[in-house]
């Protein structure tokens, strides 16, 4: 497990990170979400050793991470980072060789990744001739070519079409299935919710929530309930202790104590109950709750 503990970073009078602590487990996809300027990229760069924190530690299995461990890390920055005048396959093989791979294994891994990412036909093209989406896929291949133990990606899905998103998601899921610790940031919360087992939410340089996606949704569910009936629900707003959050004909999402919700259900039986259940929030709802 990769663990960040008490990470702080200050630029002049501005504290970019304040006591940032969370873990990234092996074999799992962890989504790192937050608004622009929240501290995601700074955190990732400290994790990778590209920035030195003012305080705190980065550990892997209880040992402080150093240069030897980071040779087994893979990183994809949000900015374009490949050599534009090199051919795609040549570039990725070269980066694999820099990571200690033999020529044959680097070439084999490159060919496999380009096939999976839909770039085989562009293997001989110069990087600068690729579309932005294809450059993004090439950068992901470069981060993965040496089969890293830890994979850190900054907005890997930015600019990708739906088919490319699916192929990249499959490659990242397979990396986790092989035992890698995978952390990626994204503003596409629906995609994070679909792919990730764990979520870390950062705002203003502090961690607002972290843990398994299911646990975070349960923790932020509160006393919210969904009710669907065959008739109208105009009477619901008059029930003491009920706060309606959303409503449309025959359906409502409301807050209430369990006891009040039971009374609502009893009343709704006469209106032809179709469904009644506690409401589990989406990741978007969780994000809004914890950053407010």
TrEMBL record:
<feature type="domain" description="ABC transporter">
    <location>
        <begin position="2"/>
        <end position="229"/>
    </location>
</feature>
<keyword id="KW-0046">Antibiotic resistance</keyword>
<dbReference type="Pfam" id="PF13732">
    <property type="entry name" value="DrrA1-3_C"/>
</dbReference>
<dbReference type="InterPro" id="IPR050763">
    <property type="entry name" value="ABC_transporter_ATP-binding"/>
</dbReference>
<dbReference type="GO" id="GO:0016887">
    <property type="term" value="F:ATP hydrolysis activity"/>
</dbReference>
<protein>
    <submittedName>
        <fullName>ABC transporter ATP-binding protein</fullName>
    </submittedName>
</protein>
<dbReference type="InterPro" id="IPR003439">
    <property type="entry name" value="ABC_transporter-like_ATP-bd"/>
</dbReference>
<dbReference type="InterPro" id="IPR003593">
    <property type="entry name" value="AAA+_ATPase"/>
</dbReference>
<dbReference type="GO" id="GO:0005886">
    <property type="term" value="C:plasma membrane"/>
</dbReference>
<dbReference type="InterPro" id="IPR027417">
    <property type="entry name" value="P-loop_NTPase"/>
</dbReference>
<dbReference type="GO" id="GO:0005524">
    <property type="term" value="F:ATP binding"/>
</dbReference>
<dbReference type="GO" id="GO:0046677">
    <property type="term" value="P:response to antibiotic"/>
</dbReference>
<keyword id="KW-0547">Nucleotide-binding</keyword>
<keyword id="KW-0067">ATP-binding</keyword>
<dbReference type="Pfam" id="PF00005">
    <property type="entry name" value="ABC_tran"/>
</dbReference>
<comment type="similarity">
    <text>Belongs to the ABC transporter superfamily.</text>
</comment>
<dbReference type="InterPro" id="IPR017871">
    <property type="entry name" value="ABC_transporter-like_CS"/>
</dbReference>
<keyword id="KW-0813">Transport</keyword>
<dbReference type="InterPro" id="IPR025302">
    <property type="entry name" value="DrrA1/2-like_C"/>
</dbReference>
């Amino acid at each position: 497990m990769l663990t960040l503990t008490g990470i702080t970073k200050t630029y002049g009078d501005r504290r970019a990170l304040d006591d940032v602590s969370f873990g990234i487990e092996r074999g799992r996809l962890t989504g790192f979400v937050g608004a622009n300027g929240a501290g995601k990229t700074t955190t990732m760069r400290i994790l990778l050793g590209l920035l030195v924190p003012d305080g705190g530690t980065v550990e892997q299995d209880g040992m402080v991470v150093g240069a030897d461990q980071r040779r087994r890390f893979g990183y994809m920055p949000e900015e374009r980072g490949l050599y534009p005048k090199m051919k795609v396959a040549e570039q990725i093989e070269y980066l694999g060789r820099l990571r200690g791979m033999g020529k044959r294994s680097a070439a084999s891994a490159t060919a496999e990744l380009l096939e999976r990412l839909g770039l085989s036909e562009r293997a001989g093209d110069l990087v600068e001739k690729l579309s932005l989406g294809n450059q993004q896929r090439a950068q992901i291949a470069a981060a993965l070519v040496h089969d890293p133990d830890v994979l850190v990606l900054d907005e890997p899905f930015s600019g990708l079409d739906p088919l490319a998103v699916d192929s990249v998601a499959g490659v990242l899921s397979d990396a986790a299935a092989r035992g890698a610790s995978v952390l990626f940031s994204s503003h596409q919360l629906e995609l994070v919710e679909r792919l990730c087992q764990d979520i870390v939410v950062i705002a203003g340089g502090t961690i607002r929530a972290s843990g398994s996606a299911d646990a975070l949704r349960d923790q932020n569910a509160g006393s919210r309930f969904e009710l669907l009936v065959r008739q109208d629900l105009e009477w619901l707003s008059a029930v003491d202790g009920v706060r309606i959050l959303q409503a449309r004909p025959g359906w409502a999402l409301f807050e209430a104590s369990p006891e009040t919700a039971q009374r609502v259900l009893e009343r709704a039986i006469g209106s032809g109950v179709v469904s009644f259940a506690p409401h589990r929030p989406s990741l978007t709802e969780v994000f809004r709750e914890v950053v407010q």
